[in-house]
Design a protein that fits this description.
This protein is α+β, with helices and mostly antiparallel strands. The protein contains 11 helices and 5 strands. The chain has a 5-stranded mixed sheet.
Amino acid sequence: MSDLPAASQTRRPRPTPRELRTDIWLAGALFLAAVLSAALGSVAGVYGTDSSTGLQWALLYSFGLTAPLAVRRRFPELVVVVVAVVFFVGVSARIPELYVANIALFIAMYTVGAWVDDRRRATWVRIAVIIAMFVWLIITTFQAAIDPSDEALSQAGLFSPFAAFMLIQFLVNAAFFGGAYYMGDRAYAAAMSRATLEERTRELELEREVTAAQAVALDRVRIARELHDVVAHHVSAMGVQAGAARAVLERDPDAARTALLGVEASARSALVELRQLLETLRTSGDTEGGSTVHLSGLAELVAHANDNGLPTTLTIVGEPVELPELVQVNVYRVAQEALTNARRHGGPDAAADVRLRYADDAIELEVVNTGRAVATPMRPGLGLVGMRERAAASGGELEAGPRGRGGFLVRLRVPLAARVGADA
């Protein structure tokens, strides 16, 4: 019995047009070989004088044996039954063709094992044909044993010529049908393995395309977030400084000149950061991992906020610990975005307080600003979205929202366990 899975689980790929054309050529070649074999067998007297030597019977027998093979992959079970019946009729009629008939029967048996998806049906069809052939062999053996003709092989002795000949017939038939059965099952198993491998290959290619598209999307988000942080911070400062310069241009040229120098410095800083970002994008490194901003620059960031009209204080609590570059960049950018928003939306009297805490299990950043009270719920902008994305990328949590007495609160907490994962 076959140990292969049932057809309900998997189906073998259908035969290709090329394979179907090959079957037609095979049937034609075997037909010519069968006609030639029958003609030569008649001349050689395979069955002695007691044989059907008429050419019309040889042609009909050859056609019946080989023509069904032209559709063997389309109707394997029907083909093996037809070929077996024709083989039985031809041998019983003593048509002098033995070799091509055995080849045709072998191919038909093999095709059932190699191409029928219903493995149970394939097994029973082949077993039925094999049993029928062996029953027929037993019957012919019995008939030969009781044949009183002197032309029959001698049956004298335990190992008589007749017994040896019959044993050879049984062994050859067992090897013949067993080989066809086994090779058909192996061919089916190999075809199913190839089909499974091709399906997995297609799935992997699809997953690779999806992964590539996701990677591109993530890169676009990271680039957009980095550009937003760089441009928004410096352009906001430039706007404040330009406004201050315009207000004092006529009555205090020196103050206006100082403000314009601040605009120039902010523009240069923005260009430097944009150039660094573009250089990073041209390499295979991480966009954020390639940034030059770190927590060590937090004091400079606070000083920049003070210089641009937002009174800001910085408080560091706890002993600083070594953090992955990605975490440092994200914490710095969150602080930068929070101060930029405070300067833009807090009003002229706004002030900010930046607190960085190193706890035993986490690092916390808190940016609180005073200013206008928010009367209506705020619609999250790109800045808040970017801060939340940075918090998630660092394995932390972000809390951001207006305060009841005015101003805004941004609190970022990154567990120190996250930095271990980032280091790995």
